[in-house]
Amino acid sequence: MTHESNKISTSVLAKKLGKSSRQMFTELEALGWIRREQDQWFLTGKGEFEQGSYRDSDRYGRYIVWPESVAEHRALTNAEDRYTGAKGLGLKTGLAAPRINQLLAELGWIKPWLKGWRLTEAGVSQGGIQKEDSHTAIPYVSWPKTLTDNLLFKRTLKQFNLHLAEVEHRSGCRAMDGHLLRSEAEVKIDNWLYLAGIIHACDRSLPVNDSAQADFYLPQIHLFIEFWGSENDPSYLASKMHKKTLYEANSLDVIELQEGDLKDLDEVLPRHLRRFGLEC
Fold this sequence. Notes:
The chain is of the alpha+beta class. The protein contains eleven helices and 16 strands. Helix 1 packs across helix 2 (21-31) and helix 5 (86-93) packs across helix 6.
């Protein structure tokens, strides 16, 4: 049985393992040894089983201490078992790794850096660990596998993976960037452009002597995007053919998307955009 006076604080434990205090607390929380309530840390049943206890100090108040032997605990020395990259998170959520990184960047947890990704302070608070590829030196970030249970991450994932778009005042569907659109299909396209960091406008008037409007416009490369939906409505089909004629007659660059393209936007849109000089 470890004597209480020989126990060490979580900060000292972090130093022994070569980690920051913030990272140490995040790992212990991920292990289920401690929990945070009202800006204070408390032991869980698992933490007490590992012989964690409390110490009171006039200077620091009550804090958690551990046996020094915890520094050799397999769960802490083999932390990789509890971490994964964007690819691993993608496998759990059904998204490609690049899309996961864009979602994490949208949350402000990472930012683009030298062909890779750099962890932000906000990302550190979520348990991210900065890594670097040993061959290419390209930076990347590892995340706790429990990130898929994170409320902020789940909310952003839900916004992107819209199955039933949010309808407001029966006037349209709200995309992640705030654009109000007509359909779930347009929301998916808008979300893709937003997360890819591509500046775009919606319902942009065509630069012709006509009142027609494009679904999307990319001012950076002067490119329009049209999504052609159901053709069961004769008036819709007539409008579609009219706009196609306008694009051709005025030599306007346009990408035309169909219903079947929506499930493969990660492959379809980059291929089309490269044809017009935009790499994403």
